[in-house]
Design a protein that fits this description.
The protein is an all-alpha fold and 175 residues long. Helices cover 92% and strands 0% of the residues.
Length: 175
């Protein structure tokens, strides 16, 4: 029995190294899966931001159509009707000045709304890019953890073979 003991110890050391290597490989797969899962959650935010952009732009387009229609029909129409009813002409004087000022104010309001819409779209684009980078980072972190786990498993395997070889050498198995 004592003559078999070194063989048993050497075999156990090799088995322990192989087991540690397999554990490292499993941990590496789990780390990659976790990184990909986290990235998937982050990428979901990119899709939500794109949906938000579409809603924002659709609402903006409807608001612009409604504002233009309101200005042309209600503001200008009412002003023309009041001026016409008063007997004033539309081609000169304060009546025309009022209409021009109203048109300038409408254009300014419209341009301000367009600028605000552009800024919000830029912010959404920036948030999407940030999310893309975070997703990429999550994958890289998963890959890094996986590489670390694999390296640790490989080191354990090498250590197991080294310990087994030391046991074999020190007990004179190969002499």
């Amino acid at each position: 029995m004592t003559q078999a003991l070194p063989y048993v110890i050497a075999g156990a050391q090799i088995t322990q190294g192989i087991s540690a290597k397999n554990d490292g490989d499993r941990a590496a797969r789990a780390a990659l899966a976790a990184g990909n899962f986290n990235a998937g959650i982050i990428e979901r935010d990119i899709d939500l931001l794109e949906k938000r952009r579409k809603i924002l732009n659709d609402v903006f387009a409807v608001d612009m159509v409604r504002a233009t229609r309101f200005f042309k029909q209600d503001v200008l129409g009412t002003a023309r009707a009041i001026m016409g009813a008063s007997g004033a002409t539309m081609d000169s004087g304060s009546n025309l000045t009022v209409l021009r000022e109203s048109a300038r104010e409408f254009n300014f309001t419209k341009q301000t709304a367009e600028l605000n819409n552009t800024i919000e779209n830029m912010q959404i684009t920036d948030q999407q890019e940030g999310a893309r980078l975070n997703a990429q980072l999550a994958r890289m972190e998963g890959g890094s953890a996986a590489a670390s786990a694999r390296a640790q498993g490989t080191a354990s395997l090498i250590s197991g073979f080294g310990a087994s070889a030391r046991t074999a050498y020190s007990t004179g198995m190969f002499s």
